[in-house]
Amino acid sequence: MDEIVYYDRYRRETCIEEVYGDKFLRWTYGTALGKSALHTLVKRPLFSHWYGWRMDRPVSKDKIAPFIKEFGLDAGEFLREPSEFDNFNQFFFRKLKPEARPIDPDPSSVVFPADGRHLCVPDLSRCEGLFVKGEMFDLAKLLDDDQLAETYASGSLLLSRLCPVDYHRFHFPAAGHAGRTRLINGPLYSVNPIALWQNIQILATNKRCITVLETEAFGDVLLLEIGATCVGGICQTFNEGAMVGKGDEKGYFRFGGSSTILIFEPGRIQFDEDLIQNSQQQRELYARVGDHMGTLV
C-alpha cells in the first residue's frame, strides 16, 4: 500500500504521515486473514468498546509519556500537565490552552472545526472524488435523509480527518443556533486512507452524528462526526438549542482516529486556495482548529 502524503499549511511542504498502528491497519485491510478479522470482529462496536475500556484503565497512563515523545507533541499546549492524567483516554481528549488555538477574527470567515488533515469539495454535484479520483460516497446514505441530500446535492463539503496523534476536540466553524444531534448507528471501520482507498462508502455507513447549525451568513450548515475503529465514543459537550460562537467547543472523541464533515448550502462559501488546490490532487491539507478555512461568498 502507498504512503499517506499530505500538505502541511504551516511548514508549506508535503509530508508523509506517521500512522499510529500502521502494521495492524495494513494487515487488517491488506491481507485475506486481516479482512476476515475485520468483518467478523474489528468493525463491530464491541471491539472498539473493549479497546476504549483498555484506554480508561489506570495502567494505560504509562503510555502517555512515550506517545508524546514518539510523535513530538507539544506538552506546553496542554491545559493540564501530562502527569495529571489518570489514564490514556483523559490525555487523548485533553483540552488545550486557549492561546494554543486562536480563532480567526474575520467576521466573514469560517474556521476549521478540528485539528487534522482536510479535503474540500466546492460543489458536490461536480465532485471528482475524495481520496481516489472518481470515488465518492453517497450523500443520501451519509445523511440518512433523501430530502436533505437533495437540498445539499450542489452544496460544499469539508472532510476533516483526525489522527490519533491530533487534538481530539471538535468545534463550531461559525456562530449560530445549534440544534439537536441525531445519531445514526453503523459499523466502525477505520477512516484512515488505507481503508478509504478501498471503500470510500465507509464514511457514509459508519456510526455518525448530525447537527444542524443555523447561521445568518452561511445558512444551515450540517455538522457531522464520524465514528471509527477503536473510537470509544462521540461525546457532545454543547447545549442543544443554544446560541454558539465561532470556535466554541462542540464535543470530543474518545480514543481512536475519527473524522468530521461540514456541508454548506450551495453557493455559500469560498474555500481557501491552498485547501482547494490540494483537494484537487486528492491530497489532504493539514491545518488546526480555529484557522481560516474559507469566506462568505
Which helices and strands, and how do they pair?
Elements: E1 5-8, E2 13-16, H1 22-30, H2 32-42, H3 45-56, H4 64-71, H5 88-92, E3 109-111, E4 116-121, H6 139-143, H7 146-151, E5 156-162, E6 169-171, E7 176-184, H8 193-196, H9 202-205, E8 208-215, E9 219-226, E10 234-236, E11 243-244, E12 249-253, E13 258-264, E14 269-271, H10 273-280, E15 284-287, E16 292-296
Helix pairs in contact: 1-2
Describe the overall structure.
- The chain is an alpha+beta fold.
- The protein has one domain.
- It contains ten helices and 16 strands.
- The strands form three sheets. Strands 2-1-15-4-5-13-9-8-7-11 form a ten-stranded mixed beta sheet.
- Strand 1 and strand 2 form a beta hairpin.
- It is globular and about 50 Å long.
- The termini are far apart.
